[in-house]
Design brief:
It is a single chain. The relative contact order is 0.10. The strands form four sheets. This protein has a three-stranded antiparallel β-sheet with strand order 2-6-5. It has a three-stranded antiparallel β-sheet with strand order 8-10-9. It has a two-stranded antiparallel sheet with strand order 1-7. With 450 residues, the protein is of the alpha+beta class.
Length: 450
C-alpha cells in the first residue's frame, strides 16, 4: 500500500470556534416572541447572540464553542473580570425559565410550557472557551421554521439599553412586514414585558418608563420606529393601546454594511441553488427581487410542496412562485436604488467567488484521482493490490467530496452539483457514489446560515 497517498482530515463541530457577527440574523417563532421572559439585559444579549447562530432550517439544536472574551465584547462586558461576569450570566440563564402559554377563546391559559434556556455549559479553563448548548426544548421555536416566525439583525437589539425596549422591539417587529400595527391591552403588555404586579401600577408611569423610552430608543437605534395612541378606555382607565409600526429607512441604510449584504446574498443564492435553480437565474433574481421577497416566496413554494405533496417539479414551481409573488411579499427595491445596487454587486461578486471555489475543489478531486491512478499503474501486475487500491481510491474520493462540501457549506458556498462536473466525466461516478452513501453526503442536506 502506498503510504504517500493523502488522507483527508475529518473535522468535527467541536473542533471549530463559532463566531458571532452583529449582522447575523435572529430567527424565532412568533410564539417565542409572545412568551413571558425573565431576563436581564446582559442575559438577553448573551442568549440572543447564541440564537443568532441557529438557522431556521436546522433540524436540531447544536453545540457551539465560543471564545469568552469575544462573547463578552459582543454583549458589552468590558470589565477586567469579564470571564467571571460571562460565566455568572450563563449560570443564571441555566436557572431561568421561559414560559410559553396557549390560551383559550376567553384568554385563559390552557397549556403552560416552561423551558430552560441553556441545556449545558462546559468551561475550558485556561483556554478561555465555553462549550454551550441551548435547550433542546427550544428547538420547536428556533429550528425548521417555515411560517409564523420573525427575523431581525442582531445589531438592532445589542445597542438597546433597556430590556423593555428590546421586548417592545420584538413585539412590534413581528407585525412590521404585513399588519404594521398591533393592539395590546395594558394587561397583555405587562405580561409580555414581565412587569411585576406591584411595579409601574399607574398607566402614566408605564407610558413614561417603558413606552416612551422604547419609542425614543427604537427610533434612534433600530430598523423600525413606532407611534401609538389609546385604543380603548374602560371608564377613565386605559384598557389598550394601538401601536403603528414603520420601517426606519434612515437607520436601515446607515447600518446596511457590505458584510451584511454579502451575508444575505450568500445565504439566499446558496439556498435557491440547492433547489435546482441555476446560478444565472438565481443571480438575476437577486438583482430583481429583494432577498426577503425571495425567501418568503421560496418558503411558500416549499410549504406548498410539503402540505400538498403533489408538486412534481419543485424548481419549476419555485420559478412560478417567484415570478408571480404567490407569497404576497411586500419587500422590494422600489425607490431604493442604493440597496438594489449593493445587492446586485454582491450577487455578481459571489457568483465569481463560487466559480473560483468550484474550480479549486474540482482540481483537488482530480489531483487525488490522478495520484491513485498513478499508484495503480505501478502495481498493475499485482491483482490483489490493484483491487485494494481501487477500493481505497473510491473510499478516499467519496471522503474528499464530503469534506469539500462540508467546507463549502461552512463558508457559505453551495455544495457541488452534477453540473459542476461537466467536462470531468471521470469524476462523476465518484460524486454519484457520494450522493448514494448514507454515511456521507450530510453536507448536501444542510442549509447555510441566513
Amino acid at each position: 500500500m502506498n503510504n504517500d497517498l493523502p488522507m483527508p482530515q475529518q473535522l468535527t463541530f467541536d473542533d471549530e470556534l463559532a463566531e458571532i457577527k452583529p449582522y447575523y440574523l435572529v430567527n424565532q417563532a412568533n410564539d417565542l416572541i409572545n412568551s413571558r421572559q425573565d431576563l436581564s439585559l446582559t442575559e438577553r444579549r448573551i442568549i440572543y447572540s447564541l440564537i443568532s447562530l441557529v438557522q431556521p432550517e436546522d433540524e436540531e439544536m447544536k453545540t457551539y464553542v465560543l471564545q469568552i472574551k469575544d462573547l463578552a465584547r459582543l454583549v458589552g462586558i468590558s470589565e477586567h473580570s469579564f470571564y467571571e461576569r460571562v460565566e455568572k450570566s450563563i449560570d443564571q440563564l441555566q436557572s431561568k425559565v421561559l414560559v410559553v402559554e396557549k390560551f383559550d377563546a376567553k384568554g385563559n391559559p390552557i397549556i403552560v410550557d416552561k423551558i430552560n434556556w441553556i441545556q449545558q455549559a462546559t468551561y475550558l479553563k485556561g483556554e478561555g472557551l465555553v462549550r454551550i448548548k441551548l435547550s433542546d426544548a427550544l428547538a420547536q421555536y428556533l429550528v425548521n421554521l417555515k411560517t409564523s416566525y420573525t427575523k431581525y439583525r442582531l445589531y438592532n437589539v445589542l445597542k438597546l439599553k433597556s430590556e423593555y425596549s428590546w421586548r417592545m422591539y420584538e413585539i412590534l417587529k413581528e407585525r412590521e412586514p404585513l399588519q404594521r400595527k398591533r393592539i395590546l391591552r395594558v394587561s397583555e403588555l405587562r405580561r409580555l414585558l414581565n412587569i411585576p404586579d406591584d411595579k409601574l401600577t399607574q398607566t402614566k408611569n408605564l407610558k413614561k418608563v417603558v413606552i416612551e423610552k422604547a419609542k425614543e430608543e427604537l427610533k434612534e437605534k433600530t430598523d423600525i420606529y413606532f407611534e401609538y395612541e389609546v385604543h380603548k378606555k374602560v371608564g377613565r382607565r386605559i384598557d389598550s393601546f394601538v401601536f403603528y409600526v414603520y420601517k426606519n429607512d434612515q437607520n436601515v441604510r446607515q447600518f446596511l454594511s457590505k458584510d451584511a449584504v454579502d451575508f444575505d446574498v450568500r445565504a439566499v443564492l446558496s439556498r435557491i441553488m440547492k433547489y435546482g435553480i441555476s446560478k444565472s437565474v438565481a443571480v438575476s433574481w437577486i438583482k430583481e427581487y429583494h432577498p426577503r421577497y425571495i425567501e418568503e416566496n421560496l418558503d411558500y413554494a416549499i410549504g406548498m410542496q410539503s402540505h400538498s405533496g403533489s408538486i412534481e417539479n419543485l424548481s419549476g414551481y419555485i420559478y412560478q412562485t417567484m415570478k408571480h409573488n404567490y407569497a404576497g411579499s411586500i419587500y422590494s427595491y422600489e425607490d431604493d436604488e442604493y440597496e438594489s445596487s449593493l445587492y446586485g454587486m454582491a450577487a455578481g461578486d459571489y457568483v465569481h467567488k463560487v466559480k473560483a471555489k468550484t474550480e479549486e475543489d474540482i482540481e483537488r478531486i482530480k489531483d487525488l484521482l490522478s495520484r491513485y491512478n498513478q499508484a495503480m499503474l505501478k502495481t498493475s501486475d499485482d491483482f490483489q493490490a490493484l483491487q485494494q487500491l481501487g477500493k481505497e481510491r473510491k473510499r478516499q474520493l467519496i471522503s474528499l467530496i464530503d469534506e469539500i462540501n462540508e467546507g463549502r457549506v461552512k463558508h457559505g458556498y453551495p455544495c457541488l452539483s452534477h453540473s459542476d462536473f461537466s467536462g470531468y466525466e471521470e469524476l462523476l461516478p465518484y460524486f454519484n457514489e457520494w450522493e448514494k452513501t448514507p454515511t456521507q453526503g450530510s453536507a448536501e442536506r444542510e442549509e447555510i446560515p441566513y
